[in-house]
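Hi everyone, sorry if this is the wrong subforum. Our group has a chain we'd like a structural model of before ordering constructs, and none of us has done structure prediction before. Sequence below.
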Amino acid sequence: MAKASFHKGQRVFVKTVGTWAPVERVIPQWVKNVEEPLRITYDLGLGREFQAHELAAEEKEPARPDLIVSEQWRVLRSSNRLSSDARDPRHPFPGTFPVVVTDEKDWGGWRVPMTEYDRDPQRVERQARVMANALHLMRVARSLVEFAQDCPDDTPGALSDLARQAEMVLATIYHEPAPAVAAEADAPAR
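Answer:
Right subforum, don't worry. Here is the predicted structure as tokens:
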């Protein structure tokens, strides 16, 4: 007995022809007193019917987990072993420096060379906090974009401008092309 491997409208690769085509019709071949079809062929609009072994489904990329949902970044303190004076009054946390950890096992992430930290400790501490909270800011930006898309009539003009900017920032983060609406809004008037 046969079961359909492809469905109507599905894009398949036709191995014998070497091209892609959508399935136009699924054609079962029935036999009397049998509940399932004996054979199934597929009409792709290429002049003949094809069997399942002659076709291949389009491979889809496995879904990657969403960065915003799956990751938890945080700031850890590492001891400053090379510093001669662990009590430097300019340092907000004497004897340590910030490390932004981007992995659940406290591996990977961001750290700064000690000389750069000594040059401006407040700036480096602020950078660490910004990086650690970047995912929270991305969540807020995504919520703003979703609100503006779900309720376009209830969104004030200034807020929808902010939503467009947030959408462009998220597109940049995910390496996607900027949304067409936002690109048109930024284009100079003709």
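For your construct planning: The beta strands are 11-14, 19-22, 25-29, 39-43, 49-51, 55-57, 74-79, 96-101, 109-111. The CA atoms of residues 69 and 135 lie 8 Å apart.
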